[in-house]
């Protein structure tokens, strides 16, 4: 069991659980976290647009199963496809920030 008594910030908790930035464990965690965020944003935007996964797939030239995998955080997605899904399929603009 890990010792959490000296942890005072969320960043310290993440480091205790997944390692320091740049480690393999932390990189895996960060990648999964970003995929979760994208999947939730996609679900929310699609529901806001009041369209089904199938309708979104048709509008963007993908398959319903692909949209479903992304929404469930299970699929890898190319940036060009992500842009097409949000901008063409959902009429949303994408902004990227590199830190």
TrEMBL record:
Coiled coil location: none
Membrane found in the keyword field: no
Keywords carried by this UniProt record: DNA-binding
Domain of life per record: Bacteria
GO cellular component term of the entry, any: cytosol
One of the record's GO molecular function terms: DNA-binding transcription factor activity
Any one Pfam family match given in the protein's UniProt record, by short name: HTH_3
Keyword DNA-binding among record annotations: yes
InterPro entries: Cro/C1-type_HTH, Lambda_DNA-bd_dom_sf, TransReg_Diox_bact_type
Domain HTH cro/C1-type: 42-85
Range of residues in the leader sequence: none
Name the UniProt record assigns to this protein: XRE family transcriptional regulator
């Amino acid at each position: 069991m890990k010792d959490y008594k000296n942890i005072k910030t969320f960043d310290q908790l993440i480091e205790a659980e997944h390692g320091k930035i740049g480690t393999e464990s932390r990189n895996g965690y960060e990648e999964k976290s970003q995929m979760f965020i994208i999947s939730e944003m996609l679900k929310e935007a699609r529901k806001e647009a009041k369209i089904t996964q199938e309708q979104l797939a048709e509008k963007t030239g993908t398959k319903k199963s692909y949209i479903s995998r992304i929404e469930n955080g299970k699929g890898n997605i190319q940036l060009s496809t992500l842009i097409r899904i949000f901008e063409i399929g959902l009429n949303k603009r994408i902004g990227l920030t590199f830190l």
